[in-house]
Request: fold
Amino acid sequence: MTVVRPRLSLALWLACACAAVQAQDLVKRKPGLWEVQTRQSGEAAGQKLPSQAEMQAMLARLPAAQRAQMEKMMREQGVGLTDRPDVMRYCLSPEMAARDITAQPSDPNMKCEHKLTPVSATEVKFSFTCTSPHGNSRGDGRAWDITPEAYRTSMTMQGTMNGQPMSMKMDQTAKWLGSDCRGIKPLPN
Reply:
């Protein structure tokens, strides 16, 4: 699990960061259950990030009890796993859906500053810098095709994790599944 945990922590942080991109004039997203498909590439801790097929194989090799423990931990952090490693679900509370500022990652030790530049009511460019005891990161990207029930994002990120350099490019496509979060806790405020 040590190989999977840092990558899942990074994935959880990224889901929170990208899910929270909003600005005052942007279309508001609906509260409820959202599904996000992610394509990523890059390096973390000196190793190339696994491909989607490699992630699928890692999840398949986990003992059932360990996978259940990981799924429980993720659900408590506001993220639900699916049968596909490139697809996660998160619950967006009504308060978060109405809010205009970005949310902090679920790690209370991670502090982030965000800059949002609205391009239109359905597109925003963003940049961020984050610090934590585990490392620092900075990145930029954009979110577009923002509707109450869908959005797309693309971003790049660089920094360090546990003293090791990391870099990542990530693209996401998200869709709203409905108002019922199906047992997934809302993302942390």
